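Researcher: Next entry in the queue.
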Amino acid sequence: MSGRHVLLYLLIGGLLLLAVWAVSRAARPPDVTALITPASTAVMPAAFSPSRTPLAPTTPAAAVAAPTLTPSVVLTATPTPSITPTSTPTPTITATPCSQPGRIETGFFPSAIAGDMSYRIYLPPCYGENGRTYPVLYMLPGNTYTDAIWDQIGLDEAAEAGIQAGLYPPILIVMPYSGEVANFTSGGPRSYEIVILEDLTTYIESTYCASADPEFRALGGLSRGGYWSLEIAFRHPEAFVSVGGHSAALLDEYAKPDVNPQYTALSSDLGDLRIYLDIGDQDWVRANTLQLHEDMVAAGISHEWVLNEGSHEEAYWTAHVTEYLAWYTEPWQQSAQNLPPCTP
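Model: Structure for this entry, 344 residues:
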């Protein structure tokens, strides 16, 4: 074989090897890491998004934009400014001429109708040291709440801050439980009316430096407690200087005209009783309270009427506790100083 043939064979062999190498290169699998990495980084935001969804409404976009939801959004943000004073007593407590700030005490009061009932009471700064008697604000809970509800929504903290700042006179705030007697009676004898009007007030006035003078007693309540505050005060206007129904649930179908606040407001001689009614414009129980307001206006019965934004919820009441306190304590700003002495 000549040298020319050898070179030709080598050239052909080299070309064959080059062709085989090219085919094998094209048949290799792709770089797995290069494909998975971009895919996984692109998925990460989607994987984390479910943890953020609770921050947004779960209703469709059209429902979120509905005007009826606007008050709820506003009110859940607005309580913060109104609660702010509850964190401010500390700077002013040092200037208070006594050794202790205000405090909450808990206990039970006896009732022949309902048995032992729990309560909370707010005692203001200097209680027990300044030898004085105090005006008393009785605040009733709704039927799904306990004696803790007014404490939880910041009524006592707002009172403490306002007293320290000189906005309100020192007062006692009594927050009783309601229990079954409040849910299964509508008023009159052997009802929650008697538990509050006789059992609770008697116990509080004999245990604490609480004024028994009706001019220094006020009664209020939220939801079902608002029904009861109005029921009691409209039937016994001589027992209190002021009454407030906050989102009052005037829904008792068993309440007869002699106990139903929608009737007794018009049929009773309320005298100089101060009356405060407020409710949210999206509150599901607002219809009967609106009707009560209109009927009282038509009858010429003086009362404070406030229609706020909001619904039937704790955020609503939290947002307005300072307004409630300012109204209840207004008659006591000067006269509370003239109450008789008392030693606990």
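Model: Residues 20 and 93 are 92 Å apart (CA to CA).
Researcher: Noted, moving on.
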